Amino acid sequence: MRYLTAGESHGPQLTTILEGVPSGLSLTEEDINRELERRQKGHGRGRRMQIEKDRVQITAGVRHGETLGSPIALVVVNDDFKHWTKIMGSEPVGHDEAEEVKRQITKPRPGHADLNGAIKYNHRDMRNVLERSSARETTVRVAAGAVAKKFLEELGIHVTSHVLEIGGVKAELDTYPSLEEMKDRTEESPVRCLDKEAEGKMMRAIDEAKENGDSIGGIVEVIVEGMPPAVGSYVHYDRKLDAKVAGAIVSINAFKGAEIGIGFDAARRPGSVVHDEITWSEEEGYMRRTNNAGGFEGGMTTGMPIIVRGVMKPIPTLYKPLESVDINTKESYKASIERSDSCAVPAASVVAESVVAWELANALIEQFGVDNMDVIRENIAKHREHARLF
Asked: Where does NADP(+) bind (predicted)?
């Protein structure tokens, strides 16, 4: 499977085309809209979430609630575009209208794609960069991920996430309840945190950052249960599934690192403690006594829960902007201010779910069949039984 996204933050719409989704998958717009709604929640979101009520339109690839096997086209309209038609319209701007278009953005924001993107594409107006490099693009990445999650659910594989840390405030819970209970509890939390005490501290940290014109980041964790073992490969670097998952996490706007299992803590422990002992039972097949590896060994799934964390830096758009340089005059100025969130970590956890789900779904389709759901279900069932009795 693969997908492409198109659209600018304040353009008319966001679009994604998904190719390779098998036929026979039950899919409705509401399946996707639920995930889009989750992405818009979270303490610390900005005014944009009050303007845009993201709803998807399925314009190709689905008929009567089932995928056809042909490319799927998903569209999310930007309601705010009506206020940006002269600034972001596709038609050439006439001489008389030029004054109505806002001035060029020539002061890049530290921590953003503005300057590098302008150099790469030779843009003197950095709005051409920031409109596409905006996290608004993750709207349709979540839409694509919703399709992947629906695919996984039909195979008994479930994905959820929670927030471990915001602005230095850490959740103290070391274990999680059932995945279903975790999802219910985090959906009720304004910061998607299981630890109620930490939840309040996180919200206060977000409010304080907002009052100071600042932003804060954090750490999210995605957990997946039900993946069969031996999905992925050890034979080539670019076929290792844990590498694809880690790469997907870091591809999210503002994410700067990924951990699988105990991650960097493995460097601080002896091997006798780090590695997961193997057991076997007729009912369950091969299992691990612990899950320090986070569901992966040798680039392949172990059948244990997949646990991956991502670190999100503070959003680089600040209401007390940092120093920058005007690319035209080369003089020092304060960077441009664009409407932004003070913290988007809770929403980013939903994005993280989506990108992980996509990589896992793609790996399953590559390994067990590409054309229709019946073949994939049958092949995975045979594989599970083979792995149990091996």
From this structure: 39, 45
**Which residues is 218 bridged to in the sheet?**
166, 312
User: Beta partners for 159?
Assistant: 224
What pTM did the predictor assign? 0.94
39 assigned to a ligand binding site? yes
36 burial level (CB within 10 Å; 0-12, 13-18, 19+): buried
Write out the residue range of the structural domain in which residue 163 sits: 2-389
Q: CA-CA distance, 174 to 194, in Å (whole number)?
A: 10
Whether residue 317 is annotated as binding a ligand: the answer is yes
User: Is 316 annotated to bind ligand?
Assistant: yes
- Consult the annotation and say whether 379 binds a ligand: no
Is 103 labeled as ligand-binding? no
Count of CA atoms in the C-beta half-sphere (13 A) of 285 = 14
Helix (H, G, I), strand (E, B) or coil at 226: coil
Total domains, the chain = 1
Q: Is 133 annotated as a binding residue?
A: yes
Q: Is 132 annotated as a binding residue?
A: yes
The Cα-based distances of 122 to 64, 298, 327 in angstroms read 46, 42, 12
Binding site annotation covers 134?
yes
Q: Is 256 annotated as a binding residue?
A: no
CATH of the domain at 176: 3.60.150.10
Q: Is 122 annotated as a binding residue?
A: no
Residue 9 annotated as binding? no
Q: What is the pLDDT along the chain (390 residues), one digit of tens a residue?
A: 999 999 999 999 999 999 999 999 999 999 999 999 999 988 876 665 556 789 999 999 999 999 999 999 999 999 999 989 989 999 888 766 666 566 789 999 999 999 999 999 999 999 999 999 999 999 999 999 999 999 999 999 999 999 999 999 999 976 778 999 999 999 999 999 999 999 999 999 999 999 988 899 999 999 999 999 999 999 999 999 999 999 999 999 999 999 999 999 999 999 999 999 999 999 999 999 999 999 999 999 999 999 999 999 998 877 777 899 999 999 998 887 766 788 999 999 999 999 999 999 999 999 999 899 999 999 999 999 999 999
